Amino acid sequence: MRSGEYSTTIEVPESSAVAKGKAPLMAAVVHQEQAGWKRGVSIMDFILRLGAIVAALAAASVMGTSDETLPFFTQFFQFQASYDDLPTFQFFVIAMAIVAGYLVLSLPLSIVSIVRPHAAGPRLLLLILDTVALTLNTSAGAAAAAIVYLAHNGNSNTNWLAICQQFGDFCQKVSGAVVASFISVVAFIFLILLSALAIRKP
Amino acid sequence: MRSGEYSTTIEVPESSAVAKGKAPLMAAVVHQEQAGWKRGVSIMDFILRLGAIVAALAAASVMGTSDETLPFFTQFFQFQASYDDLPTFQFFVIAMAIVAGYLVLSLPLSIVSIVRPHAAGPRLLLLILDTVALTLNTSAGAAAAAIVYLAHNGNSNTNWLAICQQFGDFCQKVSGAVVASFISVVAFIFLILLSALAIRKP
Fold first, then answer.
1. Range name among A17-26, A38-47, A80-89 with the lowest pLDDT average
2. Do the chains contact at A16 and B12, CB–CB below 8 Å?
3. Membrane-spanning residues where (chains A, B) (predicted)?
């Protein structure tokens, strides 16, 4: 009877030891799976970032090189349009250059979160910086879009005349730059979404 | 010697049982502490949202009621400026109304995350919707700011004349609306930051 008592009391720790042995094992498997999933998210993040760099650089450079000189001129005056003429376009070039520079500098952080999928710090930092960059990018794109709209259509109520009849090539280049900046805005929204999804689970 | 062996093997499960009894207790305490911290974040989220609603509504309504009729007129023409005259300002009013509406509708979700601090779903949804609303809000504010700048300063290169000398009150109201919209942009950035911080820890 006593030995039977002992055997039962010994069995309990044994089974609990087995359960203890299994629990960390299963936890490790789940951990591993989550690591794979998070690594996949990080790789998508990296690729999206490369795409956003291309879009931001294209926007800045197309706007920066947009000037057009008309083939006719008077004795005292040559008709020329350049992004320098409008302060909004200058802001656009500077802002998009800053955004592109930030994106290049954020690549190492993105690589860190590929190598260490469970580190929440780099992702959180990226999410916050991405939000600020998104705001800068959107404001540059929207302000330039408002001016481009005015250049295309003019406004009769305020007597602002459309200039795109005269400077067609200039207007086309500027419109292209605005479109590129909005592509980079969409990329930023997806980047923030990815970061949030990856941060959610520990 | 044998009984000594037994006594040691029995001691082990006993101590492990004590450790097991303690571990969930401490985990519960940590859980409780995190719940308090997360609830605090959610309450700040709620208050920030109320502030953003006020700013967005102020922006939409100030812009929407901005029209000015000059006290002199000719036989055929009365000089009048209103937000209707510029498509960008119409977009501003619509966008800020949508943002204010979204903010009001997001209050219940914010309350849910006060009541249930550990639910990650509502926070994630809020973060994503906030990002989209931030983009809309920023684009409306930046586009209106570009036009307001033009109305104040004009542009000699494109022969767009400043209209604020004539319509001073109109310009002041419009500028106020733009400032209010940027206050709501800042509130959104902080809302996203708070959501990200709260999502990070499970």
1. A17-26
2. no
3. 46-64, 89-112, 124-151, 177-199
Partners of residue A9 in chain B, C-beta under 8 Å: 10, 13
B84 falls within a domain: yes
* Six-digit token string for B122: 């509502």
For A70, residues 6+ apart whose C-beta sits below 8 A from its C-beta are A78, A79, A80, A166, A167
Q: Which ipTM score applies to this complex?
A: 0.80
Q: Could you read off the pLDDT of A122-176 as tens digits, one per residue?
A: 899 999 999 999 999 999 999 999 999 999 998 888 888 888 888 888 999 999 9
- Chain B touched by A11 (CB under 8 Å): no
Contact B150, B160 (CB under 8 A): yes
Query: Does residue B60 sit within a domain?
Result: yes
Is the sign of the CA dihedral A88, A90, A93, A97 positive or negative?
Answer: negative
Across the interface, of B128, B142, B195, the residue whose CB is closest to A138 is: B142
- pLDDT score of B62 more than 70: yes
State the residue range of the domain holding B72: 39-200
CB-closest option in A6, A135, A158 to B138: A135
Q: In Å, how far is A52's CA from the nearest CA of chain B?
A: 16
Residues in chain A with CB shorter than 8 Å from the CB of B159 are 161
Check CB contact under 8 Å for A193 and B128. Answer: yes
> What are the distances in angstroms from CA B201 to CA A124, B93, B106, B136, B195?
11, 38, 22, 29, 11
Cβ neighbours of A66 in B, within 8 Å: none
Residue A10 lies in a domain: no
